[in-house]
């Protein structure tokens, strides 16, 4: 019989790639979505008609819907990817973030336990490198102390520990993947990497004057989301459940990301100044195309995340740099160049090019 997988957050970046990955392996995939008057399924439109892919409705804030869904689907594996995943937004909606990112995890675990599936169903919890927050050592591994530095990270820490508690208290197969930053052409446009690649594409086409960013010196460990979903799956195929850091082991600054992205569209950048006064200048024209804005600084800012994937490489046989950092940025930029070209063509056809440029 086909294995059944339930994916929460299926319409997100990771959910869409994981769905594709599991369908290729012959799984029957159930993707959880919330009911809405406007449905946004752009990332999964191409697989919605697949015979083994099913959309099901529920909400991590509603335990009854989760219990009902788990009881009816009876999944062999659950991948809990749903979250309020934007760190900056978590400062604005901390209560909602806690309800979904913390208590939502508990609802999934309880549903599996109460429905009598604790010996059948394996659970993957999407944890985050933001747990390390105000980092106490670099690089960070599975034994590095946590110091969460945002409402998002605090909520995710509860999710991490409640998974560990259910694993030890009820002998359930549940584990957390501590994912460091993972990006792709499917990343939301409000995230910094996608802001950069989309702005580079638009600026190169004369459709945007300038890009405003926060701390350009922030350091991150960036990988390709399409590669990371394989590691999620591998974690649920082991004899014993364990938590793993999912990272590349390489570190780059926001500034580095900008340099590669703009170079891909033919703009060679030079940075001058420091802090809020730092600017990115197009060497060829002398035009300022990047400026720093205090509006994008967080109340408490994490500046140095760098993962150590040694355990995942050794025990899972996973390759964290299947896609290099340079290739990741180029993939994202090329995708946004196509997106901008299409939008520009549509705006021209409908006679609102000037409005589009604004």
Automatic annotation (TrEMBL):
EC number(s) on file: 4.2.1.47
Tree of life domain: Bacteria
Pfam families: GDP_Man_Dehyd
CDD domains the record matches: GDP_MD_SDR_e
Domain NAD(P)-binding: 6-332
GO term, biological process aspect, one: 'de novo' GDP-L-fucose biosynthetic process
Reaction catalysed by this enzyme: GDP-alpha-D-mannose = GDP-4-dehydro-alpha-D-rhamnose + H2O
Enzyme class, UniProt record, top EC level: lyase
Assigned keywords, A-Z: Lyase, NADP
Sections of the chain in a coiled coil: none
Role description: Catalyzes the conversion of GDP-D-mannose to GDP-4-dehydro-6-deoxy-D-mannose.
Protein name (database record): GDP-mannose 4,6-dehydratase
Originating organism: Anaerovibrio slackiae
Source lineage: Bacteria, Bacillati, Bacillota, Negativicutes, Selenomonadales
Gene for this chain: gmd
């Amino acid at each position: 019989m086909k294995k059944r997988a339930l994916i929460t957050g299926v319409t997100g970046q990771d959910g869409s790639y994981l769905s594709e990955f599991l369908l290729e392996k012959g799984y029957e995939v159930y993707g959880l979505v919330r009911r809405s008057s406007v449905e946004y399924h752009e990332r999964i439109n191409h697989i919605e008609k697949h015979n083994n892919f099913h959309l099901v409705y529920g909400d991590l804030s509603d335990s009854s819907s989760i219990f009902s869904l788990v009881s009816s689907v009876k999944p062999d594996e659950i991948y809990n990817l749903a979250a309020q995943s934007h760190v900056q937004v978590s400062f604005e909606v901390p209560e909602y973030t806690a309800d979904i990112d913390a208590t939502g995890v508990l609802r999934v675990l309880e549903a599996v336990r109460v429905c009598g599936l604790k010996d059948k169903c394996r659970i993957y919890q999407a944890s985050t490198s933001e747990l390390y927050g105000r980092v106490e050592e670099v690089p960070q591994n599975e034994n590095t102390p946590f110091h969460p530095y945002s409402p998002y990270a605090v909520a995710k820490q509860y999710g991490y520990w409640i998974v560990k508690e259910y694993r030890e208290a009820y002998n359930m197969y549940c584990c957390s993947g501590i994912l460091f930053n993972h990006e792709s052409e499917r990343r939301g446009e409000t995230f910094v990497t996608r802001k950069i690649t989309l702005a580079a594409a638009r600026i190169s086409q004369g459709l945007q004057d300038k890009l405003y960013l926060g701390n350009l010196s922030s350091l991150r460990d960036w990988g390709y989301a399409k590669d990371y979903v394989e590691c999620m799956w591998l974690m649920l195929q082991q004899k014993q459940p364990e938590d793993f850091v999912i990272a590349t082991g390489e570190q780059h600054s926001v500034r580095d990301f900008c340099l590669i992205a703009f170079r891909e569209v033919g703009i060679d950048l030079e940075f001058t100044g420091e802090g809020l006064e730092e600017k990115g200048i197009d060497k060829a024209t002398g035009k300022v195309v990047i400026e720093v804005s205090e509006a994008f600084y967080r109340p408490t800012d994490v500046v140095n995340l760098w993962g150590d994937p040694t355990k995942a490489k050794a025990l899972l046989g996973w390759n964290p740099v299947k896609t290099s950092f340079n290739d990741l940025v180029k993939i994202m930029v090329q995708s946004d160049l196509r997106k901008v070209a299409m939008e520009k063509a549509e705006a021209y056809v409908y006679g609102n090019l000037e409005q589009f440029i604004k």
